[in-house]
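Readers of this paper often ask what the protein records in our data store actually look like. Nothing more is needed to write down the fold, since each code stands for a local backbone conformation. Below, we set out a record of this kind in full and without editing:
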Amino acid sequence: MFAILLQISAIVTVSTVHATDSVSPSSHTMLLNDGNRIPILSLGTVGKTNMADKLVKPAVIEAIEAGYRQIDTAAAYKNEEYIGEAIVDVINRGIVTREELWITTKLPCKVGTREEVLLALRNSLKKLKIDYVDLILIHSPDNLYHLPEYDYLNVWKGLEDAKKLNLARSIGVSNFNNTHINRILANSDIIPATNEIEVNPTYTNLELVAYCQSLNITVLSYAPFGFMVPRPFSLDPIESTFEEPILIQLAQKYGKLPCQVVIRYLIDRGTIPIPKSVNATRIHSNMDIFDFKLTTEEIILINELNQDVKVYHFHGKHLLAFVEYYGF
């Protein structure tokens, strides 16, 4: 019964957001709690760092030419400079203006104090070849490098400094739970605009998504396909496929692919999915999701695929496995 009530509550929250025109159908953007509008689909760029120089720039160019306006990266991905080259390319060719792009990045996990934030952000700006980022996040609340002075609250205060200096339009967090967020709310001047967390049909993350949305903190959904795509680094993979009957049924109903149904599902839950691809066909396919919308009942049916199993774990051997795989 609790699970059903939680799903209904989440749908009601999203419906209320839509009713107040937080989502703009004409421009495919969502209104953040700081007044900025963020594109409701992002290109993910995480990948093996030793292949970034060959794959990331052409993928970002292809995506922007296809209509993507948000690019998601991080200092840890070691690809900001290639994204910067892509940004220069599309702006110089008149494909977009800087103002039409939304660039999201994340602080290095080795940043543990307020004083280190601006230095790290300016380093990212230099690599990205831009004067400001649209959104910068604390990558994780955890002290992954066992830094003696680490405190994510102090790091957050550094992001507040960055926003006040107009080096970042919006500031947010990633991989934060409700306890982490509550500590920021109780001790800070600025509410996080976003929380980037794992959300997909087999890890629906209903409680945390609903909690963030209740505070008007926008959720960005990474790993949107969960285990429906290969995860070679996973130590505990689960069986999951795009051939799930409900996905096939909805794909046939709307004349779409199952992967497009999954992206639409995340958008219709009021989150911003971050599908990652370097394949031109899939980049275009992932963008073709703005001409249909799932019903409340269909969202709940997809929620039933939940197995409560994450792709990414930030502790122990699981963390080491994907860090070594990607080369972070």
